[in-house]
């Protein structure tokens, strides 16, 4: 598994998302097994949030990592309405309990809310000094938000990025690359929706004998400083995602994909889901 350096640690460029996990108890064992399989295959970065199933996804993660905490780079996120001086330590404690661990490797502000950024950063720094988190970062921040934050301690920005949503290529992605701040791409395979049926994506996939989702992941990972966090519960999806690392797209593939999915020509509002 290829890795990149994120605030002092090497992390795999393909991790595992967990949105929609923990919502249905009947799928609990399957979800735990999927994350464990992913870890075994090298996708040891796991992304979760207190928001997902209102803590349910963190509980799934907690069970998946219980006997292998040291193998995993754990990312969780705090709700903006909990991101104040008092709320952050309390939210972090609740997440730690559900995750069944005593530290989170990377703790993110899920999106900007009503609290001043300085207050959130102060609270993050205090958690870091107390050893509750290893480092902190943000999510759904555009260039102006990052400029206002102006903190080299911010370890990452997690944003929507896939072939259908290329807006960040105009300014945000180059900004992060210039500042050596790894960017985490969420919904990298378009939530398994219409993107995967696109004819051009399917043609490129057929040329390489791989699946459209693997092309979508390889397309993101062709760039420096980018991590993709696909979510997969079906074991065959977990295997395919881990293997996507090996796929090298050629100039002709990239041209075809550029024709089908246009790169932005001007500033676009940051897309979110
Ligand atoms: N920071 C934020 O605001 C934010 C927002 C959205 C998401 N996220 C994070 O990013 C993660 C990924 O985004 P996402 O879950 O919304 O969407 P996604 O990863 O783009 O897509 C997930 C969907 O694709 C399917 N899938 C996975 N691998 C596949 C493959 N190889 N072939 C075909 N289908 C495949 C999954 O099915 P199965 O599960 O059935 O295998 C699932 O239905 C989330 O889980 C979450 O951790 C963060």
Report strand order across the widest sheet.
Answer: 3-4-5-6-7-8-9
Kindly state the mean pLDDT as a whole number? 98
Total E-strand runs: 9
CATH fold title:
TIM Barrel
**What is the share of helical residues?**
25-40%
Structural class: alpha/beta
The total of helices stands at 10
Shape: globular
What share of residues are in beta strands? 15-25%
What does the largest sheet look like? 7 strands, parallel
Q: How far is it from the N-terminal to the C-terminal residue, by CA?
A: 28 Å
InterPro entries: AKR (IPR020471), NAD(P)_OxRdtase_dom_sf (IPR036812), NADP_OxRdtase_dom (IPR023210)
Protein name: Aldo/keto reductase
Pfam families: Aldo_ket_red
Domain NADP-dependent oxidoreductase: 14-260
Word description of this protein:
With 273 residues, the protein is of the alpha/beta class. It is built from 10 helices and 9 strands. The protein has helices spanning 28-40, 56-65, 87-99, 117-129, 143-149, 172-178, 199-208, 212-221, 235-243, 251-260; strands at 3-6, 9-12, 45-47, 73-78, 104-109, 133-139, 154-160, 183-186, 226-228. It has a 7-stranded parallel β-sheet. The longest helix is centred in the first third of the chain and has 13 residues, at 28-40. The chain is globular, with a radius of gyration of 18 Å. The chain binds NADP nicotinamide-adenine-dinucleotide phosphate. The site of NADP nicotinamide-adenine-dinucleotide phosphate has 28 residues, from helix 9.
């Amino acid at each position: 598994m290829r890795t990149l350096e994120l605030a002092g640690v090497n992390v795999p460029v393909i991790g595992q998302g967990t949105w929609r996990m923990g919502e249905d108890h009947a799928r609990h064992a399957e979800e735990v097994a999927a994350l464990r399989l992913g870890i075994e295959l090298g996708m040891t970065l796991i992304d979760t949030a207190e928001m997902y199933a209102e803590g349910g996804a963190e509980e799934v993660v907690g069970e998946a990592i219980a006997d292998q905490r040291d193998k995993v780079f754990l990312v969780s996120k705090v709700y903006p309405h909990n991101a104040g001086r008092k709320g952050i330590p309390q939210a972090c404690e609740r997440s730690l309990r559900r995750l069944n661990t005593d530290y989170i490797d990377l703790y993110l502000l899920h999106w900007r809310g009503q609290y001043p950024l300085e207050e959130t950063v102060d609270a993050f720094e205090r958690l870091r000094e107390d050893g509750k988190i290893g480092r902190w970062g943000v999510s759904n921040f555009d260039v102006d938000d990052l400029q206002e934050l102006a903190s080299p301690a911010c370890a990452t920005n997690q944003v929507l990025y896939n072939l259908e949503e290329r807006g960040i290529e105009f300014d945000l992605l180059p900004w992060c690359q210039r500042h050596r701040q790894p960017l985490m791409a969420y919904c990298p395979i378009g939530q398994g929706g219409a993107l995967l049926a696109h004819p051009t994506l399917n043609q490129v996939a057929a040329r390489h004998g791989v699946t459209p989702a693997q092309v979508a992941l390889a397309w993101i990972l062709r760039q420096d400083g980018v991590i993709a966090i696909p979510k997969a519960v079906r074991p065959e999806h977990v295997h395919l995602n881990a293997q996507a690392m090996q796929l090298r797209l050629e100039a002709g593939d990239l041209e075809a994909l550029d024709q089908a999915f246009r790169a932005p020509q001007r500033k676009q509002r940051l897309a979110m889901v």
